[in-house]
Design brief:
9 helices, mainly alpha, single chain, elongated
C-alpha cells in the first residue's frame, strides 16, 4: 500500500536508508519472486518516491544484486562468529580469515543448516530466485552460476582429497538444497534433525569421533 503522504518522513543516513530498502525488497521478493516484484512497492514500503529509490540502486536489477550481496555478507558474518571467517563457502573477499583454521566438511554443513533453519524466508528467497535465474536472461543468472561454482570449489577443498572430491561436493550440495526444499514445503520437517540423520548416511559428513 502506498505510503501516507501526510506522514512525516523519518530522516535516515544513506546507509540506514539503503539497509531499509534492502530489507523491504528482501521480504517482497521472498513473497512474490523477482518477476512479480514491483519496485514501486518497495519504494512505498520505505516511504520513498520511485526516483528516490532508484537513486540508491540505479535499476530493478541493481536492487536485486544488492539484495543478494547483502544477504551473503550477513550470512558470512554469522557463520564467521561460529567457525571463523574462512568457514563460509562464498567469502566476500579472497584471503579473509586465512589465519584461521578451516572447519571440516561436516562442521561447515552443520553450521550452514543451523543458520538456515533460523531464517526460513531468506532460504525461500534464495530457492525462488535460484529457479527463476535458470533463464539466461535473468539478471541474477550469472550471480547464482558463480555462487554455485564458488560453493562447490569450497566444499571440494574441504572434502577428503582424491579423484571423487568434486563428486562428493556435488552430492553434499544436492542433499542440502533438496532437504531445504522439502523443509520449505512441509512445516513439520525439522531441518536440523533431518540433516543430522541424512549426514549419518554419508561417511564424510560423520562428526569427528562419532
Amino acid at each position: 500500500m502506498p505510503a501516507d503522504p501526510t506522514r512525516p518522513r523519518v530522516r535516515m543516513s544513506a546507509e540506514q536508508r539503503r539497509r531499509q530498502v534492502l530489507e523491504a525488497a528482501t521480504a517482497l521478493i521472498a513473497e512474490h519472486g523477482y518477476r512479480g516484484l514491483a519496485v514501486q512497492d518497495v519504494a512505498d514500503a520505505c516511504g520513498l518516491t520511485l526516483g528516490g529509490l532508484l537513486h540508491h540502486f540505479g535499476s530493478k536489477s541493481g536492487l536485486l544484486t544488492a539484495v543478494l550481496e547483502h544477504r551473503d555478507e550477513q550470512d558470512h558474518r554469522s557463520l564467521a562468529e561460529h567457525l571463523g571467517a574462512a568457514a563460509h563457502p562464498d567469502p566476500p573477499a579472497a584471503g579473509a580469515g586465512d589465519d584461521l583454521p578451516e572447519p571440516t566438511l561436516a562442521e561447515l554443513c552443520a553450521a550452514i543448516v543451523r543458520r538456515n533453519a533460523g531464517q526460513r524466508e531468506i532460504v525461500r528467497l534464495y530457492a525462488v530466485l535460484e529457479v527463476e535465474s535458470l533463464a539466461p536472461e535473468h539478471p541474477a543468472h550469472r550471480f547464482f552460476a558463480e555462487r554455485q561454482r564458488r560453493t562447490l570449489d569450497h566444499l571440494t577443498r574441504l572434502a577428503p582429497p582424491g579423484p571423487d572430491a568434486r563428486d562428493l561436493a556435488r552430492h553434499v550440495l544436492a542433499l542440502m538444497d533438496g532437504l531445504q526444499v522439502q523443509w520449505l514445503r512441509d512445516p513439520e520437517v525439522d531441518l536440523v534433525s533431518a540433516w543430522r540423520r541424512t549426514a549419518q548416511q554419508v561417511p564424510q559428513l560423520a562428526p569427528a569421533g562419532g
